[in-house]
């Protein structure tokens, strides 16, 4: 297989998005949009950083790579439309493995009616999958991290810490299909976030690094303080049972759960609950937003009756170089 026969093999047979003018097979893709705002983002998965041959099959790599990008589109309240895939392929990856990687992406893109409209394929040392996504959102309705206000309820979707626990199960050979699935095939909260469009204001951030990070990003961007209650943070009982010494850390900073952390006014909380019900999403209130006296924006967490500052923590790329 060479670069060009590979590209031919992954070319879609048809496109779904009516705004697409030119897809794969020219120097670039073209789509036209006049009535909505366009949301775009890119996230990358690298072998030995985000996955290894031991932790994921090629199918999982494709699925997880697109899921992480869809999670950012969800965190902006947008509807997914297009994606482009940039691949660095090491020697030793065969055609079947690459087509499995695309099957993983396709499973999710079919679910959300997305079109694959381009990419790039080069050879290199480690497998690296970089996906660029585009989504649409009603004009001026994109959901930012800077819109939290004092009095808001802080909420989280799903359960936190599952992906980190799932990774541990995979690495240590414990057969826990649910947790392993949460690591390999996370569920971006696209439908839930889209439906929140009916709300005047909601603050959203997706949980890629862990709520210790993401809550601080909301607090800083909005210049408010978030007061979280540790006892309310949702997690799967099996995580606590299997990893009694680790689960408290993992639910705050395990990362890779691709759930949503948000804030919304108290008056709209019942609507959020209703939308959660409609979209089969579990949503849990975990704290409140208060004014920040010095506008710095901090996160406080009450645990065992004691309140302390919750600092950013979790996985940070480039850490060694900085130390
Ligand atoms: N190399 C880069 N060049 C330009 N902008 C970047 C680069 N890396 C990150 N950014 C920008 O920095 C901001 C934060 O990016 P970050 O990747 O932390 O967000 P995220 O995708 O939500 O988190 P994660 O990568 O953990 O999923 C985004 O606006 C992103 O586009
Ligand atoms: C084999 C293997 N080792 C370690 C990890 C853990 N890990 C890698 S990146 C990341 C944070 C999110 O990264 P990003 O900021 O790029 O979204 C975490 C928690 C893994 N998934 N696989
Ligand atoms: Mg990113
Ligand atoms: Mg994000
Ligand atoms: Mg991201």
TrEMBL record:
Pfam families: AIRS, AIRS_C. PANTHER family: THIAMINE-MONOPHOSPHATE KINASE. Mg(2+) 4 binds at residues 27, 41, 72. The lineage of its organism: Bacteria, Bacillati, Bacillota, Bacilli, Bacillales. One of its GO terms (molecular function) is thiamine-phosphate kinase activity. Reaction mechanism of ThiL seems to utilize a direct, inline transfer of the gamma-phosphate of ATP to TMP rather than a phosphorylated enzyme intermediate. Mg(2+) 5 binds at residue 209. Residues 150-294 form the PurM-like C-terminal domain. Its EC number is 2.7.4.16. Mg(2+) 3 binds at residues 27, 72, 206. CDD domains: ThiL. SUPFAM superfamilies: PurM C-terminal domain-like (SSF56042), PurM N-terminal domain-like (SSF55326). Keywords: ATP-binding, Kinase, Magnesium, Metal-binding, Nucleotide-binding, Thiamine biosynthesis, Transferase. Belongs to the thiamine-monophosphate kinase family. It catalyses: thiamine phosphate + ATP = thiamine diphosphate + ADP. Pathway: Cofactor biosynthesis; thiamine diphosphate biosynthesis; thiamine diphosphate from thiamine phosphate: step 1/1. It comes from the Bacteria. NCBIfam families: thiL. This is Thiamine-monophosphate kinase. ATP binds at residues 102, 119-120, 145, 208. Mg(2+) 2 binds at residues 43, 72. It is an enzyme of class 2 (transferase). It comes from Halobacillus seohaensis.
